[in-house]
Amino acid sequence: MVAASPAGAPRTRPPAAAPPPGAARPADGAPIAGADVSYADIVAAPKVLLHDHLDGGLRPATVLELADAIGHPLPAADPAALGSWFVAAADSGSLERYLETFAHTVAVMQTEESLYRVAAECAADLAADGVVYAEVRYAPELHLETGLRLEEVVEAVLAGFAAGAAGADRPVRVGTLLTAMRHAARSQEIAELAVRYRDAGVVGFDIAGAEAGFPPTRHLDAFEYLQRENFHFTIHAGEGFGLPSIWQAIQWCGADRLGHGVRIVDDIAVPAEGGVPALGRLAGYVRDKRIPLELCPSSNVQTGAAGSIAAHPIKLLHDLRFRVTVNTDNRLMGGTTLSGEFALLAEAFGWGWSELRWFTINALKSAFLPFDERLALIDEVVKPAYARRAH
Ligand SMILES: O=c1[nH]cnc2c1ncn2[C@H]1C[C@H](O)[C@@H](CO)O1
Ligand SMILES: [Zn+2]
């Protein structure tokens, strides 16, 4: 038996990198080799996104304009070069270095106007990509540098999402997750902020940032408070660190979902000669309890949590019927979109309509929306669209 470690293979960029947001992909309408979908099919299909960072999804042109207005220096001067810079700098093989690139996006998101604009463009970009429901997260505590109050940050972003969704060509609904930074000490405050805005569009809570050395149990008070409030939360765990982080997130903190959780494969033994993989106690628990994994393939390759798209544990976890969802993490740093992620998986594994539907329904089952609203999206939006295509 060998552990199915995600970091075993040498790290390589995916051969056909996903296009930057808005960019046309070559041979748009032609089926992806080995799959029954084209890139245009994937864009057209209704999709659901549970793990996307607001400060990781800006348009490069917007970063340039906002930086210019406040005199913030950037490493490139035109949108294409800046987009490439973000992808290359984030493609570092380490979560810590990947996170350094956020200095530039956070720097230009320090006013209500800029937060509103970034949120509105985010909703518009997700709608254009065929996302019908998204949960977008950010850390309010990172946007106080010019004197905004936490409430002003939250309200500017909520207003931006509403305006962007209202003006979009395709219907999209955007829920917000408020993130606390795991190295800081504001999680209780941010958890209370999230609960205060629960009827205004904030649907959950999260912690993010460097994982090694910052276990989720540092924020136990916040998680216990959220449970007493019957609120929802996910925890970034099992990305930059392994099984202990996942175990704490679930068994100490009570996370509803795992942000990434990809290193759960360290608890799965795959027989070298083929045969049935053996799940350890934690992996078995995660699968039995249907705990959703917010997998982010391109991001995992960039931070070194996976060797390549082709070697990504998503294949094993899908085959073992874990509750897997597909996500972007950071569209700017990954040069990706949700359709781009699905296209990479179609190229690597031949996945097409039926897997796209499975991942989409998994995501809706895992969303922090009331049950009746999830069901309505499944029955009225997703199933009819896929009934025409998936078998
Ligand atoms: O994948 C991630 N892991 C941990 N932290 C992350 C990841 N992507 C973004 N972040 C951090 C950087 C952002 O400033 C913060 C809030 O969105 O969350
Ligand atoms: Zn993330």
TrEMBL record:
Residues 46-383 form the Adenosine deaminase domain. GO terms for molecular function: adenosine deaminase activity; zinc ion binding. Substrate binds at H53, D55, G209. Signal peptide: none annotated. Keywords: Hydrolase, Metal-binding, Nucleotide metabolism, Zinc. Its cofactor is Zn(2+). The active site is at E239 (proton donor). Zn(2+) binds at H51, H53, H236, D329. Pfam families: A_deaminase. GO terms for biological process: adenosine catabolic process; hypoxanthine salvage; inosine biosynthetic process; nucleotide metabolic process; purine ribonucleoside monophosphate biosynthetic process. Residues 12-23 have a biased composition (Pro residues). Its EC number is 3.5.4.4. Belongs to the metallo-dependent hydrolases superfamily. Adenosine and AMP deaminases family. Adenosine deaminase subfamily. This is Adenosine deaminase. It comes from Pilimelia terevasa. The gene is add1.
